Automatic annotation (TrEMBL):
Keywords: Cytochrome c-type biogenesis, Disulfide bond, Redox-active center
Provenance organism: Pedobacter heparinus (strain ATCC 13125 / DSM 2366 / CIP 104194 / JCM 7457 / NBRC 12017 / NCIMB 9290 / NRRL B-14731 / HIM 762-3)
Name by which UniProt lists this protein: Redoxin domain protein
GO biological process: cytochrome complex assembly
Sequence ranges assigned to domain Thioredoxin in this UniProt record: 37-186
A Pfam family matched in the record: Redoxin
Keyword Disulfide bond: yes
Length: 449
């Protein structure tokens, strides 16, 4: 019976991969998650291999386990990667939930990355503390059964072996788990990973690149929300091409003004009467509706001789396409998170080795580079949730060598690591470049705050 189930399972995987290929060839946007085992269907006998940190009921360590072994428990499969910040943030949360619901819930973390990367990463993440969640590395099979595009990705399997839900990380919490265990009503937002064939080096929507382009509004080119496209922007003056996929007006202007500075959320001043025109801050349940009404795809291609003015052309387009909105950059005195010196910084002076940088969410190591290598990355990537821009006022003009073992998403953790170099991040007023939005009909005033 087990061999028969495995045979049926392998046939299903083959059909799944064929369907995905056919849809990709047709350039039709499709829900990738729906091409695998979906909510309400039974999970076949899937054996998970390359398993770490798993002990059977006799407390013997095992490197394989069949999902059917957990019948009678709620099973939550966690698909993740070491480069995924939300995935990493959920690891301690899941570990705590595993202990809290011991005997009733079984988390299983699954990644395609090899154990040579994953094992040392998790040891460093948990800082020597015991981790209760089993994890599988080098996965190929299970991710094909539950196909997805975005991480983290969670598959909930009830005690009978049926798929109960497919969600993102927001739904993985004690309240939802208790509701499932106690068989109480729960409305979890089902995750859909829309996918479509797209080559960013070719014109968007032309020849069905990225979809049919049925929402075409304006050419040079503006369309409504493009289903299945990943959100982002690509500005290439050398090619004379600017492309935006599924971004709002605020993000489009930020891309256009990004020649010298990447403009994140904390470098925006919104002085519009209706701030919701460019920024959504409402109920999560209504976010999808707002996005599809207020986020767009845009592409501009300029001929040779005009390519150096790509960004100014894009700004001109945006002014014409959204005439009720005025936007510009200005150096503004405002609250910033400022890197300052607290003493002698000479110990950081570079020994002159080859320029290098290694960085992830667990720390940063810099060799023979300017201190801006730290502040720029904190500003652009790791401290995007910080309320203020990250700027340098340390006075350090020489190349530096340093290594920080810390959580780059936490100012407190960064400051603890910086103390060895007599540096500190402090909140104070500072003049820095900001992107300012106003209503177009409003009189433009001085930008000082």
């Amino acid at each position: 019976m087990k061999n028969q189930s495995l045979h049926i399972f392998l046939i299903a995987v083959a059909i799944l991969l064929t369907n995905i290929h056919v849809n990709a060839q047709r350039n039709e946007a499709f829900d990738l998650t729906a091409r695998g085992i979906i909510v309400g269907q039974d999970v076949p006998h899937i054996e998970i291999s390359n398993l770490h940190n798993y002990f059977d009921k006799d407390r013997k360590q095992r490197s394989t386990v069949n999902i059917s072994s957990f019948r009678g428990k709620l099973v939550i499969l966690d698909f993740w990667a070491t480069w995924c910040s939300p995935c990493i943030g959920m690891m301690p949360v899941m570990d705590s939930l595993q202990r809290r619901f011991e005997g009733k819930v079984q988390f299983l973390s699954i990644t395609a990355q090899p154990d040579t990367i994953v094992v040392p990463f998790l040891k460093k993440l948990f800082r020597g503390k015991k981790m209760d969640i089993p994890f599988a590395t080098s996965d190929v099979l299970v991710s094909k059964v539950f196909p997805h595009r975005l991480l983290p990705h969670y598959v909930w399997i009830d005690e009978t072996g049926k798929v109960l839900a497919i969600t993102s990380h927001e739904e993985v919490n004690a309240k939802e788990i208790e509701s499932v265990i106690n068989k109480q009503p729960t409305v979890m937002r089902q995750k859909k990973d829309m996918a479509v064939k797209y080559d960013r080096n070719k014109p968007l929507f032309l020849a069905e690149n990225g979809g049919s382009g049925k929402g075409l509004i304006y050419h040079s080119m503006l369309t409504e929300w493009g289903e299945g496209l990943s959100m982002g922007s690509w500005i290439n003056p050398a090619m004379g091409k600017a492309t935006v996929a599924n971004l709002g007006i605020k993000e489009m202007y930020a891309a256009a003004f990004s020649e010298k500075l990447i403009i994140g959320q904390h470098r925006v001043i919104n002085q519009m009467k209706d701030p919701g025109t460019i920024h959504y801050d409402g109920p999560r349940a209504e976010a999808d509706s707002w996005m599809k009404k207020n986020m767009f795809c845009y592409e501009l291609v300029l001929p040779e001789g005009k390519r150096e003015t790509l960004r100014s052309h894009m700004i001109g387009d945006l002014k014409k396409l959204f005439p009720k909105i005025w936007a510009d950059t200005a150096h503004v005195e405002t609250m910033c998170t400022v890197l300052v010196s607290t003493g002698d910084n000479s110990a950081m002076r570079s020994k002159g080795d080859k320029r290098a940088i290694e960085v992830n969410s667990l720390g940063i190591s810099v060799t023979n580079m300017g201190i801006v290598a730290l502040t720029s990355r904190l500003d652009i990537v790791y401290l995007q949730e910080n309320p203020y821009p990250i700027v340098d006022n340390s006075g350090i003009k020489f190349p530096v060598d340093f290594k920080l073992d810390c959580d780059l998403g936490s100012v407190t953790s960064i400051n603890k690591a910086l103390s060895q170099y007599n540096l500190k991040l402090v909140n104070q007023r500072f003049t820095t470049n900001m992107l300012i939005f106003k209503d177009a009909q409003a009189k433009v005033v001085t930008h000082n705050q």
